[in-house]
């Protein structure tokens, strides 16, 4: 159904774009294989409130992998993923006030919302019923949105993040999703209180930046991982205080009742009841990972310990800016492996196997070239 609608829309957009639309190229998934290949499309001309920018770097989030394969339920193909995008402003609309040409800029998971509902009024755009995601949505122009695995972006300035001078573009890019998706719940659920003890489950893109934010807030941090080989790095490099191998029942048993809160970033189905066991009375398990199979929860242990389970999307725009400014102040960046655009399929394969320390970032500015036919 989506495909037919999309074909119609594509035709309309091509007609609508006319002379005003701007030719753009990127890498798109075409079907549920998730394999990406070069793709040319049209982005809207710069509107009065728009900021247009040349993309320099884009992180590869695990969500990009799920979206490319249609695991998130709404495949719209071709689909250009990428929602950890940084670049340099090349054009601004007449009414833009916060950016000028040449500024560094970032875009995360959202590029639109209604701007008037209760959620929007409270700077919670991700929870707006009409929010427009950076990819996997239909934009205001009726065309599917496309993300940052592309040479340029255009967004309303409200959805653009000002980039601090001292924050590296490559290591900073993943903060726009990975950073925002752990910072926001840690703030909202009060998991940022100095002196408290936080567990971080899954040491991947989201998990490793959660450790960095938690340490900047003065928390004690225990990493809970399936990969014993990550212990040395978690402690000595990322600054975690303790490390538990989640598949080792003895280690898990010994840590019973030690944590005030847990942020769970695991991308696949996994048992959560042992995690509740690690929480103190009143402890909170906040799951931000998005496994494609339902998790199993037995409520009795929650009742007995008055424990709660929560979740969260990425931060709203105001909070994303606060997070980026906080990261710049505390020298927090993601640990990244910078790759050329034509390595993206290999990177997806490696990401699926957990073979990355800890985020792939595509060097779009230097390596994304249009396909010979375009
Ligand atoms: P990632 O880099 O692949 O990290 C996920 C980590 O989960 C892995 O490093 C691994 O850590 C652990 N893991 C993977 N498979 C596992 C399994 N079968 N059992 C137990 N642990 C497993 O992914 P990411 O980019 O951080 O994203 C993590 C999840 O968050 C994804 O589901 C993504 O879609 C979701 N996400 C949600 C939001 C949001 O707004 N809520 C935003 C962005 C992403 P160990 O080796 O340490 O066990
Ligand atoms: Zn993401
Ligand atoms: Zn709204």
Oligomer: single chain
The whole-angstrom Rg is: 21 Å
Number of strands: 17
Range of strand content = 25-35%
Distance between the termini: 29 Å
How would a textbook summarize the main sheet? 7 strands, mixed
Globular, elongated, flat, extended or rod-shaped: what is the shape?
globular
Poorly predicted runs are: 1-18
| Class derived from helix and strand content | alpha/beta
Relative helix content: 25-40%
The hetero compounds bound to this protein are: NADP nicotinamide-adenine-dinucleotide phosphate, zinc ion
How many H/I helical runs? 13
* SSE pattern: HEEEHEEEHEEEHHEHEHEHEHEHEHEHEH
Mean pLDDT: 93
Helix-strand layout with pairing:
Blueprint: H1 2-17, E1 22-29, E2 36-43, E3 50-60, H2 62-68, E4 85-92, E5 104-107, E6 110-112, H3 118-121, E7 132-133, E8 152-156, E9 161-162, H4 169-172, H5 178-188, E10 197-201, H6 205-216, E11 220-225, H7 231-236, E12 242-245, H8 249-254, E13 259-264, H9 273-278, E14 279-287, H10 300-305, E15 308-311, H11 317-329, E16 336-339, H12 344-352, E17 359-363, H13 364-367
Parallel strand pairs: 10-11, 10-13, 11-12, 13-14, 14-15, 16-17
Antiparallel strand pairs: 1-2, 3-4, 3-8, 3-17, 4-5, 5-9, 6-7
The site of one zinc ion has 4 residues, from loops.
